[in-house]
Amino acid sequence: MERLTKTASFFAILLGLAVADAAPAQQPMEEAAAPVAAAPPADTPAIAAIKESNPKTAAELVRAVLLSHDLGRDDLAKAYLQKLIDSNPKQEQAVAAYRELGSGRLFRLQTESTLQPLGGEAATILFQRLDDYLKDPDRLKTLVSQLGDPDPLTRKRAIEQLLKAGPDAANPLFAVLGDPAQQALHPAAKKMLVRLDQDIYAPLLAALASENNLLVAQLANVVSEIRLKAAAQYLVGRFLYTDDDQLRTAIGDYCDVIAGSQPDAAQVKDYLSRRVKAYLGSDPMFPVDDSGMVALWIWDTDANQAVLKTMPLADAEVITAGRLLNDLHQLDPSDADIQVNRAMATMQRASVLEDAQADLQALLDEFGLPTIQEALARSLKQRKFAEGAIVACETLGSAQDATVLVAADGGLSSLAQALQSPVYRVRLAAAKAILAIDPQSPYAGSAELMDTLAFLATARGKRVVVIGELDQQRGQAMAGELAQLGFEVVATPGGSEFFKAAYESADVEVIFVSKPLARLPMMETVQVLRKDRRTGDLPIAVIAPVGELDYFELRTKSDPLTLATIRPHDKDGYAFQLQQLYESQGRLIVPAMERAEDAEFAIAALSRMLETPEKYEFYDFTKMEEIAIRRLSDDNVTLAIAKLLGSLATPGAQMALVEYASDPFHPLAFREQCAAEFKAAVARRGILLTKDQMVAQYDRYNASEELDSGTQAVLGKVLDIIEAPTQDVRFDQPAKSGS
User: Fold this and answer.
1) Which pLDDT tens digit goes with each residue over 379-401?
2) CB of 718 within 8 A of CB of 661?
3) Between the CA of residue 49 and those of 53, 72, 408, what are the distances in Å?
4) How many CB atoms lie within 10 A of CB 736?
5) Predicted pLDDT of residue 36
């Protein structure tokens, strides 16, 4: 019977659908009745009491949220959460809630799944206010002063709160230890640092760079008591060159505790030299997070406190080496090798830590041109020194001294060598430096400047990915996924087509190579790309078969910019891979907009030099011809490129200007400008069009009757320019003798 009932219902539904289909088209369908919202459950006496209490403060609202949740009324709990969020409680309310309810109840706001996402949002607000309170410098300063309070309960509470502050308690304690007026508080402050233990190690090591001898002497006592061996490299140099007896004694005591003896000058120099070599070497010296970044505490001399900075591993290593090099320089100011390494580290530090532009004149005054030149040459040998190399280029450029372009051995100067760097930003900095120097006589490597400017000029501000994939179907699938992520994709089967695509534009951001390729095997392809400056610093993804992934991971292990991976299945997989690839470039990555600006800079620089070509006869400007012609149709740079072509005035440049000016599909104002630049080119070098090209231009003009008047005017102007050189010739008169 039940089955018959269901069957009858089914046919009734079909019948209803049939009737609906047969109804007149103009008959409106009855609107479905809106679902009736479920009535809220009746308030229990407990819920009624919560409502009647009308909670307002952060503590009252958190308590109301949790009670309502425990009583099964998440609807009411969420209403109170929203009220808490909207009230945006101040710091004192968050602290009161923490003291009254404890951290456990506040954490429940985040962990109760049925209260999300409002619970997490409310908890974040409260914990942020608490964090601000715990780290408040004035509060911590007060707590440190309470370490010397005669009331033991006050001292106990101060110690408890400072322990909760962790490394944030460091600077207030350092301030006391460096102040001779607070000497009575020094024992308690040092004892507090000892109690903080590992929480304080990193800022403590940073503070050993302070120029305050009293502070460093006090900290030497602390590291001696906690037997912190990592402090040795920051103290032993100072042990020898300081003239402060208290500091020397404190460091000597530390050495006795750690090493059982006090070192002599030869031992210190050997030890520090080995540490510098390690920091400047290839093995990692610091732990890194998932993004390859290091959290490094450094001493801010101006603020007189330790500050936490997050930076790439290479920067942390070079900056730390710089600290040790400063000590080595104090021990032996005449050592040129130490001074070069010190300059290299100082410039890297200036690039990494300075919020504003580095003080280039100060670098020149401290190190001088020869040392900075050698530091640049040394920085170019490893990618980890790229930031320092950039500052070195900027410093040399600021001197505007053309002698830096002449190497003592007759080879390439360090600036010319920098033009060959695989790091885009280094090449750009070197080019800008040479342009600032503005040499007007030949120098070794001048051709490299033209190559660099030409490459910079290729950028259109696009995000380009080049694919090497022999299987056309797979290549198209990869291109489709990457296009969805906003990339302009060039898919090739490998071989010459692949390398041409990889080399021809500064807009190429990432390269994917897959097995198999049309010609060179994958790893040989990667090696070729790495040897060319245009692709040497680009991130490359090697798409390996699943069964061979381990092999390719081993082959690419020594190349941090190459990622061995399997083929992603969707755009999310590609997005994850791209994130890894971009992270490998770190701060040296160049955004698309910046590349477009660099292209405009290069075009303007070339045009400026071409205005007075007699000063720059040693440059081969024709290297720009092909790129300029290709970029003329890019509306973003058409006017600048037209000016460049007009100054270049080669046969190809003249023809490109004529072709653009004659094309009615381009903006009229741009065509008029191209005609004007064609006139300038003819004035500079005469008509260089072929006879066939000039005849074709007459044909264009004769066929323009139905075109707009603006186009006809431009075509007429082009013909006037072509005819102008012959207008003074009298064909009815014989040529003069000797003509």
Assistant:
1) 999 998 999 999 999 999 999 99
2) yes
3) 6, 15, 90
4) 6
5) 53
Show the beta-strand stretches assigned E in 20-142.
Answer: none
Nearest to 155 by CA among 145, 166, 169: 145
Structure confidence at residue 4 (pLDDT): 37
Q: How far apart are CA 65 and CA 108, in angstroms?
A: 10
Which structure tokens are listed for 214? Answer: 């009293």
In the chain, the largest separation of any two C-alpha atoms, in whole Å, equals: 125
Proportion of the chain in helix, strand, coil states, percent, rounded to 5: 65, 5, 30
What's the DSSP call for residue 229?
G
**Residue of 693, 694, 715, 695 whose CA lies nearest to 704:** 715
Report how far apart the first and last C-alpha atoms of the chain are (Å, whole number).
120
Using CA of residue 268, residue 274, residue 277, residue 281, what is the dihedral sign? Answer: negative
CATH of 464-588, one of 3.30.200.20, 3.40.50.300, 3.40.50.2300, 3.40.50.410: 3.40.50.2300
Could you write out the three-class secondary structure of 147-186? HHCCCHHHHHHHHHHHHHHHHHHHHHHHHHHCCHHHHHHH
Which of helix, strand or coil describes residue 508?
strand
Taken as a whole, the chain contains a residue count of 739
- Residues 485, 468 contacting (CB under 8 angstroms): no
pLDDT for 20 beyond 90: no
Q: How many helices (H) and strands (E) does the chain have?
A: 35, 7
- What is the enclosing helix (H) or strand (E) of 692? helix 691-702
What is the residue-averaged pLDDT of the chain? 88
Place of tokens 């920051």: 234
pLDDT for 580-621, tens place per residue?
A: 999 888 889 999 999 999 999 999 999 999 999 999 999 999
Cα–Cα nearest to 94, from 83, 112, 86, 106: 106
217: three-class secondary structure by DSSP: helix
Q: Which amino acid is at 129?
A: R
Q: What is the pLDDT of residues 628-664, one digit of tens each?
A: 999 999 999 999 999 999 999 999 999 999 999 999 9
The residue behind tokens 């002497």 is 217
520's tokens? 């060179």
User: CA-CA distance, 194 to 581, in Å (whole number)?
Assistant: 42
Share of the chain above pLDDT 70, in %: 92
Contacts of 426 (CB under 8 A, 6+ apart): 380, 386, 389, 390, 393, 418
Are 336 and 372 in contact by the 8 Å Cβ rule? The answer is no
Task: Provide the residue ranges of all domains of the chain, joining segments of one domain with +.
Answer: 45-134, 137-263, 308-456, 464-588, 594-726
- Give CA–CA dist 332/346, Å, rounded: 17
Cβ atoms of 306 and 340 within 8 Å: the answer is no
Gap between the Cα atoms of 170 and 163, Å rounded: 10
Cα–Cα dist 513/491, whole Å: 10
